[in-house]
Specification:
The protein is mostly beta strands. Helices cover 5% and strands 46% of the residues. It has two helices and 22 strands.
């Protein structure tokens, strides 16, 4: 893990062994990542990623396992795609004037044996404490491929309290308590609503455990037009995820039939971005 911090904001642990995703996220001295309070999905790559505060789902597949059409060898699209477990090549890390910046490339081999690259830039504004992530997915293969992406931002449920709420324009009534759904969990996916600067915003908080701060997440709606929210309190799991995502919560087959894939020709790219801060 690479420690990544600025003059203000969270202290992040970037995982160079897995997509330069965020392992630990320390705010007010507390790491709010769920750690081992996660469901075991039987894939050690994904379990490792789920333990952290943010992991990248895709770019060849998102959400859950599905069969690969035309395959007779039993191989399936893996849980949450192929990115997890691919190491990052760090191009630079800078700490200047209180700000922090880290640039890395992640070369991925998809389940079909095709190559794609994530060009990733992390920044922390040392004045505001806001963290920004800018990603470019580049199709480095010789075939036209669909590109899908989801960011899982996972927080340990033990850091919440009865006053912690979800809030955002895309939510019913503008928001509700974090304990939505059934007693031990729930999931929903809604169309994101952009506001200032073409960004959607969702908030989770306040959390008394971290000085009554609220996690504010903002993300581009042109390439991440949906927000999925998931929670699981079925022991030993105790986790809630805020998940900006490129596609609706339906099967891969239904997305393809509806012409909803984002197809990239060889050499083409697609950009994604999110921001988060504790306010």
């Amino acid at each position: 893990m690479i420690e990544f911090a600025a003059a203000k904001g969270p202290r992040l642990m970037l995982d160079e062994t897995s997509v330069m995703d965020i392992g630990g996220c320390i705010i007010e001295g507390i790491d709010i990542a769920p750690k081992r309070a996660i469901p075991d999905d039987g894939d050690p790559r994904i379990d490792h990623s789920l333990e952290g505060f943010l992991f990248t789902c895709g770019p060849d597949h998102i959400r859950h396992r599905e069969p690969i059409p035309g395959r007779t060898d039993g191989k399936i699209y893996p849980l949450h795609g192929s990115a997890s477990g691919h190491p990052a090549k760090v191009l630079w890390t800078k700490f200047e004037n209180g700000h922090a910046e880290c640039r890395a490339d992640i070369d991925i081999v998809t389940v079909e044996g095709l190559t794609q690259r994530i060009e990733r830039l992390w920044r922390i504004d040392g004045t505001t404490g806001e963290v920004s992530l800018d990603d470019k997915i580049v199709n480095t293969s010789g075939q036209t491929v669909p590109t899908l992406l989801m960011y899982h931002m996972n927080t340990g449920g033990k850091w919440f309290d009865p006053g912690t709420r979800l809030e955002g324009k895309m939510l019913d009534g503008g928001g509700f308590p974090w304990t939505f759904g059934e007693e031990l969990g729930g999931i929903f996916c809604v169309e994101a609503v952009a506001s200032e600067g073409g960004l959607a915003e969702v908030r989770l908080g306040p959390m008394a455990a971290v000085g009554s701060k609220t996690l504010r997440v903002r993300f581009r709606t042109d390439t991440l037009p949906y927000l999925q929210v998931w929670r699981n309190q079925k022991a030993p799991a105790d986790v809630l995820g805020l998940e900006p995502v490129s596609h609706r919560w339906v099967s891969r087959e239904e997305l393809q039939a509806g012409g909803e894939f984002n197809m990239l020709k060889p050499g083409e790219s697609r950009s994604y971005a999110l921001r988060f801060a504790f306010i």
